[in-house]
Amino acid sequence: MNSTMKLMSxxxxxxxxxxxxxxxxxxxxxxxxxxxxxxxxxxETMMIEYEKNDNRGIIIKxxxxxxxxxxxxxxxxxxxxxxxxxxxxxxxxxxxxxxxIIAYKQPITRVEIEDIRGVKSExxxxxxxxxxxxxxxxxAEGTGRAILYGTTxxxxxxxxxxxxxxxxxxxEEIAIDEMEDTDLFMTKxxxxxxxQE
Amino acid sequence: MNSTMKLMSxxxxxxxxxxxxxxxxxxxxxxxxxxxxxxxxxxETMMIEYEKNDNRGIIIKxxxxxxxxxxxxxxxxxxxxxxxxxxxxxxxxxxxxxxxIIAYKQPITRVEIEDIRGVKSExxxxxxxxxxxxxxxxxAEGTGRAILYGTTxxxxxxxxxxxxxxxxxxxEEIAIDEMEDTDLFMTKxxxxxxxQE
Amino acid sequence: xxxxxKTEAFEGPLDLLLHLINRLEIDIYDxxxxxxxxxxxxxxxxxxxxxxxxxxxxxxxxxxxxxIKSKMxxxxxxxxEMEEDFDIQLNDPRDELVSKLIEYKKYKEAASNLQEMEExxxxxxxxxxxxxxxxxxxxxxxxxxxxxxxxxxxxxxxxMLRRKQLSAPLHTRISKQEVSIKDQMRTxxxxxxxxxxxxxxxxxFPTRDKTTIVTTFLSLLELMKRQIVQIEQKSNFEELFVLxxxxxxxxxxxxxxxx
Lengths: 197, 197, 259
Description:
The complex is a heterotrimer, with two copies of chain A and one copy of chain C.
Chain A: H1 2-18, E1 23-24, H2 25-32, H3 36-52, E2 58-63, E3 66-71, H4 76-84, H5 90-105, E4 108-109, H6 110-117, H7 122-130, E5 134-139, E6 147-151, H8 153-158, H9 174-196
Antiparallel strand pairs in A: 1-3, 2-3, 4-6, 5-6
Helix pairs in contact in A: 1-3, 5-7
Chain C: H1 13-23, H2 33-46, H3 52-73, H4 86-90, H5 95-121, H6 138-143, H7 150-172, H8 181-194, E1 198-200, H9 210-225, E2 229-232, E3 241-244
Antiparallel strand pairs in C: 1-3, 2-3
Helix pairs in contact in C: 1-5, 2-3, 8-9
């Protein structure tokens, strides 16, 4: 009994941290050092409990193999209000991430940006373009000839920069290298995945 | 009663969605269409409940002037299985020293920082700025108009602080007594000296 | 007495002085100048590779110490003709240095407090804000006031890296960067050399990374086969020790490894 309770707590921590990505049952078993049976059982208990408990604002959603937290639909109104509320930072976070990537890695395509972020980035790019902070600077070589993005002079003005080199350096540039490594893995992973299918 | 329950659910939804941006009490009142009194009361109830309920893996913490969900510390091990290098990210001694000086003496210039440390500090300042822990907060008066540095919201978030006032007090100038003793000694010494003459 | 001193171990001349004051158990308000100056000099001599930049700071401090020391050596009062110097005598020549040391010590302690806070905030995790842009129509999004500076942008970037770090292993476990057995053999041998030719078996596995553990283990087997290392265990269940048996030529690593 006690261990199931701990398992619930662990699963709640893990699903929370993984956010929109979610985790598979296999991953949960590995991460909690538990058995598939126990995890299955606990997930079921949790799904029912979250759903029926009126105090809870999140539920567990199963999407294909992945389990993730999502908000209860009945709270959609206050979430919508959060979206419209101009003090909310969650919107600028996405834009700022994309802006940082474009600023440091330009010229760069949308697909490359999405690879780095791990999420779709069409909207933030659109927003930044509409604000005149980024622009098309050319086309990539090869098939598709994807649009390449770069920053604008307005970007420099907005951030009070003399030129693009005046951007503060990233910590020893290691961050970027690491990122590229991970992306390589990601790409390989996706390739393997596609081939399997 | 029913409305409090709905409020809990709404707050849970909102805090989940906003993640490490967190939400202020004011924002929660606005977003849930509630009163400050009710939100305060509900937050308190939730904080206690999450903390003491062994099934829960997340708690509410006041971080960087906002309320945020964070995972329970007892589950750190299974979460760290998700992290590549759990400790590699920690700050160097030099960065910590510079950060301590900036945190307690902000706004402060680079030269003032170097005066306290007795060594050049350009690099740690760069690293800290690149990590988003310190920022330019203005320019000093006078010739040169040196850059003034201060801490950021990310600083509060990174060190788990509710606000800048939550910093522990600056360690006092070693034992004050000791100093007074020395002063006493000095005085006596001087007296003796003067009498001798 | 001889010391092994590394520059990186000190955050500058003030840090070194504090270290000496601590070790010599000297009262910070009554520093024995002769003692500390000679110790300080020994230390900076022992620091073999000083970067030029840093060296100058250490040398300036050496000069300061010497000048304070020589001022201290002046007799406190000689005869009446020295009366002019009276005022100067009342000002202890160490005062400025002492107040600098005390000021620095405060922030050094504050830095270690921050380090503790850093450690304890590593015990909990948050999540990035959910991407809500799907709820937002693009036109509205474009009107959204972006009130940020360069540092907000960098902050956002760091947050993203933190998030990346969290999900990385789940993706990367599939194909991890490979360390060759040959490279790992070199690492093991040089670790053993550093350890004086003998180390506990477990000291050779400082990482929790599975691939590295496996590679290290395979490289140990290979080294044993080539009689470069030897395993020693006094009795069952006792600690295992790995011994370096001979000087290793670089060429020995080049031999083909049979799989």
